[in-house]
Design goal:
Blueprint lengths: L3 E6 L6 H13 L7 E7 L4 H7 L5 E5 L16 H6 L4 E4 L2 H6 L4 H13 L3 E6 L3 H5 L3 H16 L8 E4 L13 H16 L3 H6 L1 E5 L7 H5 L6 E4 L6 H9 L3
Parallel strand pairs: 1-2, 1-8, 2-3, 3-4, 4-5, 5-6, 6-7, 7-8
Helix pairs in contact: 1-11, 5-7, 7-8
This protein binds 2-phosphoglycolic acid.
The site of 2-phosphoglycolic acid has 13 residues, from strand 8.
Length: 250
Amino acid sequence: MRQRFVAGNWKLNGTRQSISTLLQGILSGMQDVKNAEVAVCAPYIYIPLVAESLKNSAIVYGAQNVSEYESGAYTGEISAPMLKEFDCKYAIVGHSERRSIYNETDQQVAAKFVAAQNFGIRPILCVGERLEERESNDTENVVARQLDAVIAKAGIESFREAVIAYEPVWAIGTGKTASPEQAQEVHAFIRQRLARKNPEVANLVQILYGGSVKPDNARSLFAQADIDGGLIGGASLDASGFLSICCAAN
Ligand code: PGA
């Protein structure tokens, strides 16, 4: 049985004040979350604040990105050993906003995945198709390509210490959610793709759904056989909404 997992992706949002309030709100309702691991992925600069606020709590945290390099002349970057120093458990890699706005390639995403794991940080690898790719029946090709780049570089065994998030780009921040059946279809495809290399690993890896998950649609998504939780953007900025989504994993 795979552990349920709900992770918040705050993106470029928050202030010291709003983050403290949000975390207090989430912490105060955590006793109702019986079944899921809960994580928040904060903007880098707030990670020390998050670490301090979540000390001795049941909530873990991570970053939204990580450099593929360990150190050196890479102005503006943050490396995996830096994140490790602040006890980040997770780092999102390959989010569609990184791929599209910052032109991150499949190879770069794979390098980030490896860099995180080299320092004991679990990557949350995002994959997903754009609307025109779905409409031209390319969803499986795109997801397979994104996945295969990481398998080729990191090896199938590396997925023992990683999480996958299927996030159809057309559903992110748009209010359009994939139907539970549409999402399940792709989740099953991802698991089968991994199973071709190693069925045991495929069976244990958590695959999250992301893209306009809200309190009112989380339960039906999480009820699908291959959906193990969610990666939550907008709805993770509201404590009670985020908690309802976490409870939907109960
Ligand atoms: P959303 O974002 O929940 O706001 O659609 C999800 C994500 O980008 O991870």
